[in-house]
User: What shape does this take?
Amino acid sequence: MTIEQLLIEKILPRVRRPAQYLGTEWNSVHKDFDAVPVRMVFAFPDLYEVGMSHLGLQILYGLVNQRENCLLERAFAPAVDMEAELRRAGLPLFSLESHRSLRDFDIIGFTLQYELTFSNVLNMLDLAGLPLRSADRQDDQPLVIAGGPAAYNPEPLAPFIDAFLIGEGEEALLEILDLVAEVKGDKGRASRSQLLERLVEIPGVYIPSYYSAEYTEQGWFKGIKPVHPKAPERVQRRVVRDLDTAFFPVSQLVPLSEAVHERAMLEIFRGCTRGCRFCQAGVIYRPVRERTPETLLAAAKDIIKNTGFEEVSLISLSSLDYGALDQLLPQLTLGCEATRTGISLPSLRVDSFSVKTAQGLPGRRTSVTFAPEAGTQRLRDVINKGVSEEDLFKAVEAAFEAGWFAVKLYFMVGLPTETIDDLKGIADLVNEVMQIGKSYSRGKKRPRVTVSASSFVPKAHTPFQWEGQNSRDLLTKKHQYVRDLVKRSRAEYNWHSIDTSFLEACFARGDRKLADVLETAYQKGCRFDGWSEHFRFSLWMESFQELGLDPVDYAEKTFSYDEALPWEVIDPGVSRDFLIEEHQRALAGKTTPDCRTNRCGKCGVCSSLKVANCLVKGRGE
Amino acid sequence: MPRYRLEYMKKDIARYLSHRELMTTLQRAMKRATFPLTYTMGHHPRPKLSFGPPLAVGVAGLREYMDLELDREISTLEYLQLLNDHLPPGLRAQDLVKLDPGEMSLGKFINCACYRIEAGSAISAISWEQLFNKLEEEYPGLTEGLLKWCANPVEGYLEVLMQEGQGGVSLRTLLDALNQGIGTTLLLPSLVTRTALFHLAKGLLTDPLKKYTRPL
Assistant: This one.
């Protein structure tokens, strides 16, 4: 029996939500596997419902499958029940389209969206029947590559991945595929070692086996040195200069099994220069590149026609900052009218303009979400979140006035320089928001205010990369303190698992030694660590202990400026000097304006990557 | 607004769609196929579609139905083709007819269903009469809901005509009862096909497109 027959007859009847394994979504591409020379599988190390909501998948899927000599199929992390069925039946992890083993592909490409999917990466390699470590894989086995935001600190995954692609994939992935086609020729499979020898020449490619990590006698990280003549000292990230002419998928996959977000995706711009100092995306996607309204309207029309989705979402890091909303929205609304397609904005800026804009859009919206992130003006200045108390109150008033009685507020606890006043400040803000709500409801409908609080996780390549995370005990006390205050105003307080944030911090700033911890924890059974129902913190702690490492040394370590950082082998384009200056300005409570509307902040991206902010308003001038 | 009734098939791998997934899939296919759908009022407009009795995940359906309200009359032949051009594998639109005004809704009309269970060798040596009598004690109402059954030991299937909706037993209950009675766990929903849906009145079965009527 083929995998397909076994799957249909024996396995699908036994697993939950079998539709996620069918692979026959509308707009899925089914090529003749044996007739296509270069075959890649896009491996998403999380569930179908998460991966199918991911824009990067849609972009690369459309881009690669457009090419006649390539195919790109999908594989998601199988749910726990599916994994058990596969292992019981002795079946490999397969791609959704051709139902082929991952081993049959030339390239397995993982996207790393989040550190807590790393154990799933190992599990997917194992389910494919491949040795976990590159060094243990045979020369003719598939090339394993990885990209995405969590690849900006590739070190914890270094021994498992043959090559990382740092930065945007629209151009670089095609270069990689061309190279594979060339090296493979008419052989059955390209030699991995030969491929790597050539891949090292492609900008943005980091080959960890071409580097050696050094440690001090005490075991602290000392630096990474190239050990291969062609390997660059630092690998600079790739960036697409003009997004308006870049590929954008208009035949997006329509999920068969329900995804987290069921909607068409319209990426209106990439990059954000607001400069929140905790935010990694704000660094690694710089500069801002807006698409023109004409391009977007044409794409939206095709996407709606080709998918039949109920809603189109305007995707970016901060969609209300798009420079031509006044042109885009009225026309888009008009275009959506006949098919009753809704328009959504993934998050709102904290001001009344945002709320009024959202109010004018077709479609449902049951609640509004704002992210003030910190409780006092002082701390908001430290993190460079350009939001004032007045902005928030006006935004909230506008929301209540528009009839939204459910308001969600995002805060971060454990930020650098935080004091008890800042925590109290969160409760004060929440209380004020509740009072505003009550004044609008006039006793009719009780306002619902939900606070969603996360714990600060220092991320690589941000001004806060040197800062240690608060201890777990301290974070627990802080969250409890805020919760007790917030409850008095009868708002709901939810906080993310502290253990999860702790582990995320370890890996976000970890070095190569964590690879052993990861492998041990995986062998002990860790999977889906980002899911509270699967997260087994004690197994992680055991693994650290067995390897003689202390996770606290990773999560809570405060680096000094003269120390080498494990992720500095990656060059995000933003200069180290800028990050240091931003860190110092943060500690001094000084804000830095957005370079879109103010003078250049000298972050270094434009000069080092030879790009520039590309704004609709300035185009053609 | 004119109402139409669609007869469609859900088989092969599409049998693994849940009812909810199926509804979404059909709705999006109709949007792609440019059906002039009408929508409910309010902030959250939904197309006016109504579906026949749901099928469990894994169960195929050869003659399934849904009603749709459109904002104008359409050429049923043309739109049947358009819809088929926009359906994923395993789903097939078979017929589309305009309903008379005042026609009963699917929910009211359909009151019985015919299932075929591919039981393989599990069924050959069984006395079904005895089995059902025995099961009636543990699953009260089982035989009452079973209007008719016949077993084909040569081809290895069991066919049952059951009351659907109020007063009937669910397919899940029937499968549980059969598995227990035979002493297996082999009868999974993926071995079941709903072959037809009917309106039963005065001993006569009528299909939802009213193309034929036959005695029970």
Chain A touches chain B at residues 8-9, 12-14, 17-19, 22, 24-26, 254, 256-258, 262, 305-310, 339-340, 363-364 (CB under 8 Å).
